[in-house]
Specification:
- With 144 residues, this protein is an alpha+beta fold.
- Helices cover 32% and strands 27% of the residues.
- A five-stranded mixed β-sheet has the order 4-1-3-2-5, sandwiched between helices.
- The longest helix is centred in the first third of the chain and has 21 residues.
- The radius of gyration is 14 Å and the shape is globular.
- The C terminus is likely disordered.
């Protein structure tokens, strides 16, 4: 388990996973879209960047910003009643932003068969970060 360690005054990156308490479907999709939109607005004001992926009922998120900004932000996220089993996977000093173009980007789930058995809760932070980077490369497909 990761601890929310302060790595100095520079850029920090955190990665966490959690389990959604909302059943999948159109209502949950609309709620997630709203969360991403509101998060992007708030994150811009806080100089926070990041990415979110909903995958097999799990949230995977990476956030980048200062320690003083990320710590209280993560504490609010961890207390959100829409998810449970929140696990902080890593808090590290970051040499640069991986998600610099997005105050909050929702990643697209990888194609079927590419990791369906992947256990998010047990995964290492590096693997989750790789999955997030891959997921943000492909734009989301919107329903017509």
């Amino acid at each position: 388990m990761a601890y929310f360690e302060n790595h100095g005054s520079g850029l920090h990156r955190l990665i966490y996973v959690s389990r959604s308490l909302r059943p999948p479907g159109p209502e949950a999709d609309a709620e997630i879209a709203d969360i991403v939109l509101r998060s992007a607005e708030k994150n811009r004001a806080l100089a926070v960047t990041g990415a979110l992926l909903i995958y097999n009922g799990r949230f995977i998120q990476a956030l980048e910003g200062s320690y003083d900004t990320l710590k209280p932000l993560y504490e609010r996220i961890a207390d959100d009643p829409r998810h449970t089993e929140v696990r902080l996977k890593a808090v590290t000093a970051a040499p640069g932003r991986l998600f610099s173009r997005w105050a909050m980007k929702q990643g697209r789930k990888p194609a079927a068969g590419s990791g369906e058995a992947f256990d998010m809760a047990a995964a290492k932070a590096e693997d989750l970060l790789s999955l997030l980077k891959l997921a943000t490369l492909t734009p989301l497909r919107r329903a017509a």
